Amino acid sequence: MSKSNAVSESGGPAGTAPGTAAERIEAVMRKAAGEGLTRAKDGRITGRVSAALIAAAKVRTGLQSDTELVAFALANVALEDNFARAFRDAKGTVDPDIDLCV
Asked: What angle do CA 79, 83, 88 make, to 5 degrees?
């Protein structure tokens, strides 16, 4: 991923506080690379989506390249940790009488 496409002149992507989206993108793509998901550029994906969706995603991420945007979106899906589901599934499993020292 090209940093010049991900970061604006202010140090962060357009529409975000400096660094926040860029740091998230960098972390996701670094993890994807660490898991070997970005080694080869041997796949191709095509499709039609709303231009408004693409524009909003680019504003939110600061990414300008369609390729980088798709790679980031796919990495997010591939690396999803399912925290929300695990948190929801844990509801009611802790004894309400447990002393949490709070």
From this structure: 150
